Amino acid sequence: MADIPDDSAALLQLLGTPGTGVFLDFDGTLVDLAPTPDGVRLEAGVIEALALLAERHGGALAVISGRPVTQIDAMLAPLVLPVAGVHGVERRGADGTFSVAATPDVSPVLARAQALAAMHPGLLVECKRGAVALHYRLAPELEQLCMQEMTAAVQACPGVVLLHGKMVLEAKPSATDKGGAIAAFMQETPFAGRRPVFAGDDTTDEAGFVFVQQAGGQGVKVGSGPSAATLRLASPRALRAALLAASVSPFKE
Asked: Which of 6, 7, 25, 38 is catalytic?
């Protein structure tokens, strides 16, 4: 990854500046990707660093994930943070208020994805609130077939769009995305009036990068690939190192 710019110093400065609102993707950002969604593991010290950093920023630190909120809570326990799940379909504010956006019927997509997975054991289907993810990490040779099937399924479901992530195709509501989730947080205490910083690794994070930069903040792309983000880190390990350093470094006024 030597060809990937390392903006760790710039991120550390942002994380160590009062008035920053911190938003973090989970998979491929806080944790390394794994062959299956339940195979990811948090490195030692990350939860403690997040807790310290959240406290230093007055609670203005949230996780913005494609996972359901319940999964994020289980991964971060005992820490409880503001969270947006399923790309913004689910959202729990800093005050604990839980909201759910209206979602279209994705049962036809689920049925088609499950039928395909039944014929190909290497495929994994995730059913979420208003969304369906088809993982082909264990069967990369099936990418084109998965794309054909999921594209056809989504075209028959109004209000649903297809996102192509890292070895996953996800059908989700077109009305919600990570940018909208961050925008909602930015209307609430303790995020309101802060400069947003959002770190993510995948195409599903691009809407978040666009929003925070339009709001005067910074997007941080983790890993390779084209992105709207203005800052770049080589890997989740580099992001975790910045979080750990920022959690114990003095604020820079």
From this structure: 25
